[in-house]
From TrEMBL:
Family: Belongs to the pyridoxal phosphate-binding protein YggS/PROSC family.
Record protein name field: Pyridoxal phosphate homeostasis protein
Keywords for the protein's UniProt record, in alphabetical order: Pyridoxal phosphate
N6-(pyridoxal phosphate)lysine, modified sites: 42
Keyword DNA damage: no
């Protein structure tokens, strides 16, 4: 019964998040469907995720390879999974082979992981994989992500040398406490401008994935097209207790 109540609570919270996201987009003069909400389900059990799916949502995000590999086969195949955690190149094959409906990897931050993903996609014969380049906009050493000055070069590498990847935009996590400041968002928007100029593509073709539970409304108002919302939908994370 607890999981039923949790699933119902998450579905109601999702509706609230979607409404707030649409309102924020409208305030910024953008169309209602211009923002994707990735429901971040890490540590959450399959029945609770299923409740949010049954409420009509299809886009979910996970941070850990093994957790996603375990969950994906237990859930419908039309879910669009986003991998949003740091991905080690030695786990790329397991992720792509284990999750055929992986729609996007949001955390590509160097040429090594881009090249590895490109090779694995080709080896598995799967359709080209959408990727975002993760940019470290806060300057914290604890954060993964390419330095803003290197994002255009990495985007160019993906575009020219990784035919099995689809460069789809940029992602940032923000500050250590997972909130962001307007400066973080502005930095990512500036990176988009530079990348689009370098690649010769319109800015509409370059997504901005920024904003999480604490700040997704502000992020949308500042141009985000992809927000990653976990605890506001699912409640606090449930990490296993250590002995």
């Amino acid at each position: 019964m607890a999981s039923v109540a949790a699933a119902e609570g998450a579905a109601a919270a999702l509706r609230s998040v979607l409404s707030r996201a649409q309102q924020a987009a409208a305030r910024a003069g953008r169309a209602p469907g211009s923002v994707r909400v990735v429901a971040v389900s890490k540590t959450k059990p399959v029945p609770v995720i299923r409740g949010v799916y049954d409420a009509g949502h299809r886009c979910f995000g996970e941070n850990y390879v093994q957790e996603l590999i375990d969950k994906a086969p237990q859930l419908p195949e039309d879910i669009e999974w986003h991998f949003i955690g740091n991905l080690q190149s030695n786990k790329a094959r397991a992720l792509l082979a284990g999750v055929p409906n992986l729609d996007m990897v949001e955390s590509v931050d160097d040429e090594k992981i881009a090249n590895r993903l490109d090779r694995v996609v080709a080896d598995l014969g799967r359709k080209p994989l959408k990727i975002l380049i993760q940019v470290n906009t806060s300057g914290e050493e604890s954060k993964f992500g390419v330095h803003p000055s290197g994002c255009a070069e990495l985007a160019k590498h993906v575009k020219l040398n990784c035919p099995n990847l689809v460069f789809s935009g940029l992602m940032t996590i923000g500050m250590l406490d997972y909130s962001s400041t307007p400066e973080n968002f502005k930095t990512l928007a500036n990176c988009r401008e530079e990348v689009c100029k370098e690649l010769g593509i319109p800015e509409e073709q370059c997504e901005l994935s920024m904003g999480m539970s604490a700040d997704f409304v502000q992020a949308i108002e500042m141009g985000s097209t992809n927000v990653r919302v976990g605890s506001t939908i699912f409640g606090a994370r449930e990490y296993p207790k250590k002995n």
